[in-house]
Amino acid sequence: MKSLPIKSLLLFSTCLLSANLMAATNSITPDDIMRFESLKKPVISDMGNMLAVEVAPDRGDSHGLVKSLVANKQFSVKGGSKPKISHDGRFVAFVDVIPLLDSEQANKKAKKKLKSGLVLLDTSTGKEIRYERVKSFEFNETGSHLAIWFEADENKKDEKSADKPENGNKELKVDDYDKGSLVELVTLNNLKSIKFKDVTAFNFDKSGIHFALAINNIEANKHELRLVKLADNTASIIQSLKQQQVGSIALSNDGKYIGFTYGDAQAAPYGREYQLSLLDLENNKLTAAPKSPEWTLNRYAELRFSDDSQRLFFGRVPQVSQQLEIAKVESQADLFDKEVITSSRALRVWHGDDPRIKPHEVKQYKKELKRTYLAVLHINGNNLVQLGDLIVPDVEVQQQQRFALASSDLPYRKMITWAGFYRDFYLVDLNTGRKISLLTQQSTSEEPTLSPGEKFVSYYLHGNVFLYEIAQDRRTNVTKTLGVSFADEDHDYPSNAPSYGLGPWIAGDTGLLIYDKFDIWQVSTTSHDAFKLTAGEGRKHGVQYRVTGLVKDKEYPSVLKGDEKVLLHGYSDITKGDGFYQAQIGVAGVTPLMDGDYKLKLLARSKDAETILYSKEQYDRFPDLYSGSYDSPQDATRQTNLDKQREAFNWSQSELVQWTNGDGKPLDGVLIKPTNYVEGKRYPVLVYFYRFMSDRLHAFPQMKINHRPNFAWFADNGYAIFLPDIRFEVGYPGDSSVQALTSGVQHLIDIGIADPKAVGIQGHSWGGYQTAFAVTKTNIFKAAVTGAPVSNMTSAYSGIRHGSGLARQFQYETGQSRIGESLFKFPQKYIENSPVFYVERIKTPMMIMFGDKDDAVPWEQGVELYLAMRRAGKDVVFLQYQDEPHHLKKYPNKLDYSIRMMEYFDHYLKGTPAPKWLSEGEAYTENKKAD
Questions:
Q1: Which pairing describes strands 637-638 and 666-672: parallel, antiparallel, or unpaired?
Q2: Rounded to an integer, what distance in angstroms lies between the CA atom of residue 275 and that of residue 811?
Q3: Which helix (H) or strand (E) holds 548?
């Protein structure tokens, strides 16, 4: 090969360098954002040896990533999402999602028939097995088996059953609820499987002994309970019922019992009454559960054994009845029968004494339809005790043997409308059903906790933490002498300040951990003495410490040993950085393990090992996954490298900014500088905000197309982005927001960052309201985009949140809108805080965005603002996205809004020509309907 002269080599090297620089500084486009991959739903195996996660672009098809945490092995699974891992980590199962192209190309009818599948990966061989049309799948707890439940075969809907019906050839109309489908039970050590048709329910026990199935085929009059012994996969029919549809089933962990419900197969499932029986598998003895005239069972009676197999929990109802039907016109006389005619009325009666307003009642209807009231069957003695009832309906059972916590919101359902959510809490005796009142009108968010040894209940009330000693019926305020409030110090709502939460209990019921704003306290349950487990380091250095990395299990809340070393997460209120620390129960002091200018999120903890999984991120560092030991997270191993996606772009940076508010109080915020920032040059600024934003200093920007401005895209397009903290004053939410916004923007102008003629503002929902209000008070903003704003508090006050059916009044009296009183008592404050009354003051061009099916803010609030500005001759444009809720869901709409938002700010802040839709509007048109 002929060598090149030096001059040519230099030129060639320069060209390569230039090409590499160009490759590393591509401009970010919406296409890049759509293709940018994020990590979703990471899980680790119970043994801590395997990681699985969904790698998902903002638009397009996901793939599953599987990595061994103990060996150099990894796998990519096409189409994989929502992973589950077997106990030992050998197998990983993913939902096999329909490819986006197939979904987009299918017509409406065909799209309904598209069903996801399942991918089963053997991590020892890398072999994949794919299953089609899977509606659910589940590994058993020991990891020996996988149950796959398939969708019903639509092609066989019109075919006769393979089993001949015993009642001749008469066709039966069978409700879809009663129809079963195929279940395949896979033995994981050899991948052999057995299949069962017509399955309506199945259940593994936690010990890995049995697998039970309910098999129902009404047409063939086949109703069976089948049991599989998992040791050898032998299946047997343990109960065969005639004309009795098998309902719920449950297995005890000692392998001895199966509980099941059953009811008349000829009755419609909506009103079918069920019975409960218990089968002793060792001696094939069947025992019917006791009955009572006050309570019965319906199809929603789920069964669950306690882990010691001594109690069977299930739900009962006072009565079961069939659903009402509209009367049919069957004769000439029916045409004039008032009862027949009015049965077809479309009417909802709103009564002033209704516990719930009608829209909320409608939204809760299906949930209430499925409501059951917890009962317990004590196996020894066949003693049945009703725990929940019509007065105290909600009972939460963990694994305690004597007591459970119960609650009721019934006395407060009417006042939800204006006062928010409250409950009465009780202690209920599992042996007798007797209830002891604990708390009256307690905030729903402040649930008490029952100690694992069932000696104490802890709860928060009005800034303090209390202990209730059950045997002594004695309550003690254990924090009143500690000299610090345990209420949220940053609470700026017109309501009682909430707590910072209650930490875990200590073994033997000897103590518990509680949190103030910064520190963790250890409280003795006997002496009631307390000390700072974190030795006061939290408040001293402005670091908020919290226990983290415990195994999450609703039935088994973590209990700490008396001398156990625990992992803490720390957040610096000063630097906004995170850290991991270590403390020891019983000893005051904190040992730093790792901390810095980054954000840490602990994502998972293995159930039977010390392995944890966490992400570590900065504005210019993707939140990749790290696996490490609970004792030493600082020695973790990086398991993913999606940060490499940034290499094609010249990423910007974030920094903390601090200034003084108009009332003299210090405020924090985040400044994201434009890419290729030049010191001393002024830039257009986009202000985005909600409430507290400075904790996002080290957060990687969300690489998605949605209702928010994409920070990376705006920064790469020459914008500085400003995220200010807002601190509110009750009664004056609008003015306090304006103070924070204007003082923060002025600070950016003063330090030479912001071009004072090119500052824009964008907010959504509560931020949308503040945006609309701000421009009635200041001209500092040259363009405003407001998404789903409340513009008129006087009309919004008595509006409805269509998603929940709740009235909006409580939001103004006790919640986010912070007025603090009703419209009737403080009408002037509602007016003073409503942008619509002051539109004549607005000099800022405004773009309003709403989905016309908004489920949180009535979209008419946008119409009011638009019409008022239009009438006042202001510069306004309104984007109405059809059939969209509070946050845009349909990708075409999200992308369209994102593009228009950029075009809008580019025009008003950078002087680019106005797009035609902005300068001329768009005429209404209708597209040809798809075939």
A1: unpaired
A2: 45
A3: strand 543-548
pLDDT category at 108 given cuts 50, 70, 90 is confident
Beta-ladder partners of 649: 26
Secondary structure (H, E, C), 835-851: HHHHHHHCCCCEEEEEE
- pTM, entire model: 0.93
- pLDDT category of residue 223 using cuts at 50, 70 and 90: very high
Q: What is the pLDDT of residue 544?
A: 98
CB neighbours (10 Å) of residue 153? 12
Q: Do residues 422 and 415 lie in contact, with contact meaning Cβ atoms separated by under 8 Å?
A: yes
* DSSP 8-state assignment for residue 12: H
Q: How far apart are CA 763 and CA 733, in angstroms?
A: 15
Asked whether 408 and 435 are in contact (CB, 8 A), the reply is: no
What amino acid is encoded at 675 in this protein? T
pLDDT exceeds cutoff 90 at 507 = yes
DSSP annotation string for 631-690: S-GGG-EE---GGGGGGGB----EEEEEEE-TTS-EEEEEEEPPTT--TT--EEEEEE-S
| The dihedral formed by the CA atoms of 124, 130, 131 and 135, expressed in degrees to the nearest 10 | 80
- Cβ atoms of 530 and 520 within 8 Å: the answer is no
Q: How confident is residue 2, by pLDDT bands cut at 50, 70 and 90?
A: very low
Looking at residue 804, its pLDDT comes to: 95
Dihedrals phi, psi of 923, to nearest 5 degrees: -70, 150
Residue 282: φ, ψ to 5°: -75, -40
> For 181-212, what is each residue's pLDDT tens digit?
999 999 999 999 999 999 999 999 999 999 99
H/E/C letters for each residue in 357-426?
CHHHHHHHHHHHHCCCEEEEEECCCCEEEECCCCCCCEEECCCCCCEEEEEECHHHCCCHHHHCCEEEEE
Nearest C-alpha neighbor of 602 from the set 636, 573, 575, 576: 636
Q: Is the pLDDT of residue 14 over 70?
A: no
Percent of the chain with pLDDT over 90: 92
Report the relative pairing of strands 520-524 and 530-532 from DSSP bridges: antiparallel
Distance of alpha carbon 145 from alpha carbon 451, whole angstroms: 35
Q: What does the block give as tokens for 750?
A: 């003063």
Averaged pLDDT of the chain: 94
CA-to-CA distance for 2 and 549, rounded, in angstroms?
63
3-state secondary structure of 891: helix
Q: In the prediction, which pLDDT does 552 show?
A: 84
